[in-house]
Design brief:
Length: 400
């Protein structure tokens, strides 16, 4: 592991400013820039480096929709051995790089612990990493200033809105298990905690991501009085060093308590290879051209039932949505809320799409859903991704 602390001297005008370097993992290592071409699976990215296409290991299982858009600039290190040419370290954004290499997050935390740069953990010393306890393996075993043990699990957060950060960006049964196990250990008299490392200084608060993984959100909310839960915002420099002291940001429990309900809305994405003609239960006939489509629905009674309808198995005598499911695979994007946000979703998506068709109600009592067609895959459209982030993170936080 590289030195955990060095002094770095920077010149600004005629003054000399000496800044502390809290973490510098790539001293002596050449960092390359690659332009993302595609991500064939969770752990592989195909990038253009110079004029060559190269295969890169991506050590991050998250969906990373809002970060890994077409032509994203990735920061890479070259591999001397292994199946891939490079490893993805981070992604460049207009507000600075964001670390994607999840293994480096624990190295960063160790460096910060040794320099007492995490305010809530000052006075704690590292005993060892990767500790087995019960049915789980936790990232750190620490001791407080009195010698008492403290188990710490670290989670890497890369999902941000304008002012908020959330974790996870994909369902994580492993994270839920860790939190449950830490809660059980704490009931036995051993102190435990969870540290969310937010890889940006932009967010002002953190909240468990209740849209994608409500089980994790409910679990950590249930354990919040037994565990020490910390969110730490880290600012990365262009050379992938940390020279600004990380700051703890508050947890937005009020947002979670208010918005984690069985209402809201959803978007279901699918692609048709051929035209599809449908006769709906109400007798209306619709024709869907080949291309990229999104079904948008609100949920005023039960979001879980709407999602079940979208993701459920087809009927023996297919019609409507079931007929679509036979012809293609569907990716659902839920939006959990204390109110039905279907109309807000329809208005936002209508401004991006090229065609709009009224569909049918997915469940009795819910409003009629709407189909939208796009000229290209909406997951590659910045405005579409921004809409998801805004309506999942930014707008709910403004509701009182």
């Amino acid at each position: 592991m590289p030195p955990l602390s060095i002094d770095k001297t920077k010149r600004k005008s005629r003054d000399i400013v000496v800044a502390m370097t809290y973490y510098s993992p790539f001293d002596g290592i050449t960092l390359h820039t690659g332009k993302l071409i595609e991500r064939p699976n969770r752990f592989v990215a195909i990038c253009e480096v110079g004029r060559s296409l190269v295969s890169c290991h991506l050590p991050n299982p998250g969906r990373l929709w809002e970060l890994l858009t077409p032509s994203s600039d990735l920061i890479l290190t070259e591999n001397k051995k292994g199946k891939t040419d490079f490893t993805v370290v981070a992604v460049r954004t207009p507000r600075g790089p964001i670390l994607l290499h999840t293994h480096r997050t624990n190295d960063l935390v160790q460096a910060l612990l040794e320099q007492e740069a995490i305010p809530s953990l000052e006075g704690y010393s590292l005993v060892r990493r990767e500790v087995q306890q019960g049915d789980s393996r936790f990232d750190f075993l620490l001791r407080d200033r009195h010698g008492a043990p403290f188990f710490l699990e670290v989670k890497s957060c890369t999902l941000f809105g304008e002012e908020g950060a959330m974790f996870p960006d994909a369902p994580s049964s492993r994270a839920t298990k860790h939190v449950s196990e830490l809660g059980r250990i704490s009931q036995g008299g051993i102190s435990c905690g969870v540290l969310f490392v937010v890889h940006s200084s932009r967010p002002k608060w953190f909240c468990p991501e209740y849209h994608t993984d409500p089980d994790f959100a409910r679990t950590i909310a249930a354990e919040r009085d037994r565990l020490r839960i910390i969110s730490l915002a880290v600012s990365w420099e262009d050379d992938m060093t940390v020279i600004k002291k990380p700051e703890e940001i508050p947890l937005n429990w009020g947002l979670l308590d208010r918005e984690l309900k069985d209402r809201g809305g959803c978007i279901a994405l699918f692609t048709l290879k051929n035209r599809l003609d449908l006769t709906l239960p109400n007798g209306n006939h619709i024709s869907l051209r080949d291309g990229h489509w999104a079904l948008v629905s609100g949920a005023s009674i039960s979001l879980e039932k709407v999602l079940s309808r979208i993701n459920g198995k087809a009927r023996k005598d297919p019609w409507g949505w079931d007929r679509i499911r036979i012809d293609t695979s569907v990716k659902s994007i839920p939006f959990r809320s204390s109110t039905d946000i279907g109309e807000k979703l329809r208005t936002a998506i209508s401004a991006i799409a090229s065609e709009e068709i009224r569909f049918e109600e997915l469940k009795p009592g819910e409003n009629v859903a709407t189909l939208f067609r796009f000229d290209r895959n909406p997951m590659g459209i910045t405005q579409f991704i921004d809409t998801i982030i805004r309506m999942r993170i930014d707008e709910p936080s403004l509701t009182k």
